[in-house]
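Protocol step 4 of 5: obtain the predicted structure for the target chain.
Materials: sequence only (see below). No template structures provided, no constraints applied. The aim of this step is simply to have a reference model before the mutagenesis design in step 5. Sequence pasted as it appears in the construct record:
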Amino acid sequence: MRRHRYAKIVATVGPATNTPEMLKALFLAGVDTFRLNFSHGVQEDHARIHAAIRALEAEVGRPIGILQDLQGPKIRVGTVRDGRLDLAAGERVRFVLEGTDGGKDAIPLHHPEIFAAVVPGQDLLIDDGRVRVRVVGLGDGTIEAEVITGGTVSNRKGVNLPGTLLDLSPLTAKDRADLAFGLELGVDWVALSFVQKPSDVLEGRALIGDRAGIMTKIEKPQALERIDDIIRLSDAVMVARGDLGVEIPHEDVPGRQKELIRACRLAVKPVVVATQMLDSMVSAPAPTRAEASDVATAIYDGADAVMLSAESASGRYPVEAVAMMDRIIRSVERHKLYRSIIAASEPGEEETPPHAVATATAVLAEAVHAAAIVAYTASGTTAARVARKRPAVPILALTPDVGTSRRLSLLWGAHSVRTDDVDTYEAMTADACRHAQAEGFAKPHDLIVTAAGIPFHTSGNTNNIRLIQI
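Step 4 output (structure tokens):
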């Protein structure tokens, strides 16, 4: 089953789509990777969904990626008097480290790391920024603040501290238990929330190793300050625009999205754009024109994948949302300006032999109008290096590793196939021709271009190009 597009679709599984029948419908509509959101549900539910996806994978004969998204630490106010407090601009309020059911003079905030980090003049955003208060004084276990933007504060609403580096691990005790569970299941990707600095990614790596790819969610402005190091340590990146948009000005989010996509392309790391892409389709059968344009912009920017959250997890039109995203992507990729825009946004070359070989592979394939680029890849690196060029030729990624084949379902332009290992140049050539025809990319007399690392079984050593006529 071949997708006739380059960019990929990630869809979140939830109450609206957690049956085998709905999972199959989503896959047929265009989903390449399924996201399991561990902020909701229990482990047994996720295990059942994981098993259903693997059964679907066996049925359709195509690798399907599974992304485990860890909840991460959640900073929230505690319970307040009568369940809600109405705050007016100009009022003074006090946050306290201890206590429950407080009023405006004792709003519970049971997070000592906040009391250790904040200083007068900093803002606290409550309920995704609907309420904003500014710190004016600190006491022993108290924070005095002035209300800048009034509104209602109810029980357990989230708190954001833009510009404040918190001494907080990205992995809570719950996350660690969920991570161990997910790795035992065999998830392909693990998304790390609340990453502020490179060492947060290393903390995740120490637990995950090479059992799954690490997808770092960029949702904190502190991460942007060390973004090159964070990307280098990650296997993929998610532009988590929801939380990021709370802590940086809304008008800065589009520019940051473009910067992150470009940086990931330069580093040869897949990048996913997420949050509210087709949000209207949670309750409506069609998106707004602005939402369609938002998805299109991510594709024009060169994102590897775009993601659905509530639209596919709990919305009324999950299959329609996936189908709409699929149509938008295909429409953009057929547009007469797409290639010129993609070429104009291409990052500078990394001057190493493997990158030069991968670039030459893409250029050669386009020059001879090849039917496909066949990338032999053990870890996925060769395919990713070719995809970085965003060639106008599909990439058939052949790998003997089942985990690699599943992770490649997130990579731009890659049609991944698990194949038997090859040991000789002749076997590689025959295998490439066979799969190119079997997967519907080429027919007799067509040209294909292969990229591989010789000797075989050497990860990341892209050093060989061959032009083959079927």
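Step 4 remarks: The CA atoms of residues 345 and 465 lie 26 Å apart. The chain has a mean pLDDT of 95.
Proceed to step 5.
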